Amino acid sequence: GGKNGPADYEMKVVTEGFEKSGSLPGSDGPPPEAVLYVNGLPPDCEDVDLYRLFNPFGAIVPKGVKVMMTPDGKCRGYGFVNFLEVESAQAAIEIFNGTYLPDGSTLHVKVKSQSGNAPNYWGSSGGGFGGGGGGGSAAAA
């Protein structure tokens, strides 16, 4: 395809190329203080839901949102959000941590503790976010 015809490549190839090249901001991973652990998520939570909640606070590194799933595709109740800047992470913590959810449980958001054997959820490996999905709303306490 040329200028006027359909492209003969997939956008996914372009996106992955930029991510792997290291030329995108945050490609080398987020600052440790900008990696958030989010707990209290419902079973139907997906990466895109966390992305929609946290993205308004600031830039998220490439593939920087990951909901941990069971083998049958349900959320395990927690996930991670990797911001480009510490200030964005702190703002998200201030708004979301301690929020009461519709079932009476509480959303917990904090900086991920640093342990030597923790998996790495950013960079060229790990999950990203997809399209679609819905979201609920939670009223802050």
Short characterization:
This protein is an alpha+beta fold and 141 residues long. Helix content is 21%, strand content 23%.
List key phrases describing it.
five-stranded antiparallel sheet; about 20% helix; about 25% strand; globular; disordered C terminus
Kindly describe this structure.
- The protein is α+β, with helices and mostly antiparallel strands.
- The chain has 3 helices and 5 strands, in the order H-E-H-E-E-H-E-E.
- Strands 2-3-1-5-4 form a 5-stranded antiparallel β-sheet.
- Strand 2 and strand 3 form a beta hairpin.
- The longest helix is centred in the N-terminal third of the chain and has 11 residues.
- It is globular.
- The C terminus is likely disordered.
Task: Describe the secondary-structure layout.
Layout: H1 11-21, E1 35-39, H2 47-54, E2 60-69, E3 75-83, H3 86-96, E4 99-100, E5 106-111
Give the mean pLDDT. Answer: 81
| Total beta strands | 5
Give the SSE order as H and E letters: HEHEEHEE
Q: Residue share in helices?
A: 10-25%
Q: Helix/strand/pairing class, anyone?
A: alpha+beta
Number of helices: 3
Spatial order of the strands in the main sheet? Answer: 2-3-1-5-4
- The proportion of strand residues reads 15-25%
- Show unreliable segments: 117-141
Terminus-to-terminus distance: 54 Å
Radius of gyration: 16 Å
Biggest sheet architecture: 5 strands, antiparallel
Shape: globular
